[in-house]
């Protein structure tokens, strides 16, 4: 069968006066083919339906169709075994192809929107982001976005973190409840490891003990999604695309939190907090058709009030002191004072600070460092000549952070020593 442009060429050459043999030589087609298309004119050829081809499955098609009409979810492997028992000698693929053509389509099921009354539920999840901070432009950083959404008002709280640690999750919960001005009746979690440990022998969800302590302190009930049921927590998953497109893309960030002194560029979480207040929670939500902040004001009196006593759950760890008097916790280093006699100390991990004990005595209390490979050296922990060589890479606290500086006499003495002269 010739293509349309070839047929047009044959007719055009005929109009120019060429014979059939000349057209055949010019186009490379058989003279009989040229004559056929000249006789048919420019009307496209009409082809009738091909006769159906016989198949080894033909004697069993009625059986398969009847089975699928009665049981639409019956598998092709099951049908294959049954027709084999009836004498079918073909393969499984033939049964699959025919089954797809006759299997009844399930009726469309529309999704049911799940709405909760004010104060009933919040949903929590994490999302993955990558960025380059202007303070470390050569390094790609992975950050995780913690989000909590109130089910009724769609009020959103979010905060970036370097890792999904348990104490970080606790701090984010406390900040979210403070931002919402109350506590929902229940909090729905994806099956993240910081919340859900697994299931017991009866199939009941087992939550992390610290999370249960947090829930008991604030008065909410933790609940977990069923496995592979992402739509159960769609209210907290849908905003991730919104956060990425409306906030994250096209911005630059100096760092995650206040990790570096100086600079006029706001850090990542400060920018996020401003965006939540002025954009995300000030917009008209597309589903509720209400301003999120106004809906939150209606929902706020319903959840239980915040507890007066702050949450203070403690995770106890045993750590050894390094040669330079530091203790490693979650990839960061915290100082102990000079004169600490024991090499092994006990670290109490709280939501917002780290306490270090020598025996029963509290010897140091540090604020939590963000990220990894940071050092916190408290004032007064180093004395004597070693104190002049101590250097703080970073301590949380913003403008009050201090950097140890060597006096100029140290450099003068070093220069004299290198020159072979006696240091007075």
Q: Could you please describe the fold and organization of this structure?
A:
With 424 residues, this protein is α+β, with helices and mostly antiparallel strands. It has 4 domains: 4-40; 58-102; 121-299, 2-Layer Sandwich (Nucleotidyltransferase, domain 5), CATH 3.30.420; 315-409, no CATH class. It contains 13 helices and 14 strands. The protein has helices spanning 4-15, 20-27, 31-40, 61-70, 76-85, 92-102, 166-180, 209-218, 234-248, 268-278, 292-299, 385-389, 408-418; strands at residues 121-131, 141-150, 156-161, 186-189, 196-199, 205-207, 221-224, 315-320, 326-329, 332-335, 344-349, 353-358, 361-367, 375-376. Strands 3-2-1-4-7 form a 5-stranded mixed beta sheet, sandwiched between helices. Strands 8-11-12-13 form a 4-stranded antiparallel beta sheet, with no helix packed on it. A 3-stranded mixed beta sheet has the order 9-10-14, with no helix packed on it. Helix 2 (20-27) packs across helix 3 and helix 5 packs across helix 6. The longest helix has 15 residues, at 166-180.
């Amino acid at each position: 069968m010739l293509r349309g442009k070839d047929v047009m060429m044959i007719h055009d050459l005929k109009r120019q006066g060429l014979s059939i043999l000349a057209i055949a030589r010019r186009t490379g087609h058989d003279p009989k083919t040229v004559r056929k298309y000249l006789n048919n004119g420019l009307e496209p050829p009409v082809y009738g339906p091909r006769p159906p081809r016989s198949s080894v499955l033909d004697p069993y098609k009625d059986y398969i169709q009847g089975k699928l009409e009665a049981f639409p979810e019956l598998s092709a492997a099951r049908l294959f075994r049954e027709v084999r028992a009836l004498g079918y000698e073909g393969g499984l693929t033939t049964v699959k192809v025919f089954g797809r053509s006759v299997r009844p389509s399930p009726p469309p099921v529309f999704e049911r929107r799940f709405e909760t009354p004010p104060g009933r539920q919040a949903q929590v999840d994490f999302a993955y982001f990558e960025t380059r901070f202007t303070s470390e432009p050569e390094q790609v950083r992975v950050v995780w976005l913690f989000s909590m959404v109130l089910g009724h008002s769609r009020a959103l709280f979010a905060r970036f973190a370097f890792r999904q640690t348990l104490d970080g999750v606790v701090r984010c919960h406390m900040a979210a409840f403070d931002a919402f001005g109350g506590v929902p009746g229940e909090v729905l979690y994806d099956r993240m490891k910081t919340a859900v440990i697994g299931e017991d022998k009866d199939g009941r969800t087992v939550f992390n003990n610290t999370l249960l302590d947090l829930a008991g302190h604030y008065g909410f009930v933790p609940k977990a999604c069923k496995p592979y049921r992402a739509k159960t927590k769609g209210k907290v998953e849908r905003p991730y695309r919104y956060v990425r497109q409306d906030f994250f893309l096209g911005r630059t960030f100096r760092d995650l939190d206040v990790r570096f002194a100086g600079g006029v560029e706001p850090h990542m979480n400060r920018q996020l907090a401003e965006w939540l207040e002025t954009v995300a929670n000030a917009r008209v939500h597309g589903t509720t058709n209400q301003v999120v902040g106004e809906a939150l004001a209606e929902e706020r009196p319903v959840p239980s009030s915040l507890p007066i006593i702050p949450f203070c759950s403690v995770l106890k760890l045993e750590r050894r002191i390094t040669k330079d008097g530091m203790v490693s916790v979650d990839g960061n280093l915290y100082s102990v004072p000079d004169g600490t006699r024991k090499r092994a100390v006990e670290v109490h991990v709280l939501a917002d600070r780290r306490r270090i004990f020598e025996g029963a005595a509290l010897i140091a209390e540090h604020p939590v460092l963000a990220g990894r490979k940071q050092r916190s050296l408290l004032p007064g922990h180093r004395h004597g000549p070693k104190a002049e060589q101590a250097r703080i890479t970073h301590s949380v606290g913003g403008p009050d952070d201090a950097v140890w500086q060597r006096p100029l006499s140290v450099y003068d003495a070093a220069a004299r020593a290198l020159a072979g002269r006696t240091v007075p």
